Amino acid sequence: MNLQDLQPRVQEFGAAEAAVLLVYLFGSLASGRAGPGSDYDLGVLLDRREDSPARRARLTHELVVILGTSAVDVVFLNQAPPELAFAVIQGQLMYERDLATRVEYEAYVMGRYYDYLPYLRAQRQEILSGEDHGARIQRYREALGRTERTLGQIRAAQEQKQG
Fold first, then answer.
1. How much is the pTM?
2. Which among 36, 50, 76, 127 is most buried, taking Cβ atoms within 10 Å?
3. Residues 43, 84: Cα–Cα separation, whole Å
4. Quick one: which of 113, 107, 103 has its CA closest to 82?
């Protein structure tokens, strides 16, 4: 299914579901890099008062039926981490309940993303540097052991003074 056929289906889905506030297409289809095995990556923002695991399961099933394929990955944006939510809103908006909700949500996501960006970069750099976390834990344990031995020596010296 091409994007021109997809958008009306997603818009009909959103209009029929009062809980659905926004739907984005992201990933390879949205960026024009889709291959034969590509799936539909959809980000869905729900009204938080209507959000539940049962509703999420039902909506995912409805999207599978509407799109006519099981190759559908749905990210519910209500609890998506900042980096994922930011990637989703960089995709293509397929449905919006109203402009104000979209603008407010996108501003919220961008604010969170840019607030967390220094931490995300540091975390990514740490992962890419290949530092073995096991080695870091071992160094911590060794330092703790040295501290405990030193404390033991101090306590023993104090007991000798008192005794």
1. 0.74
2. 76
3. 9
4. 113
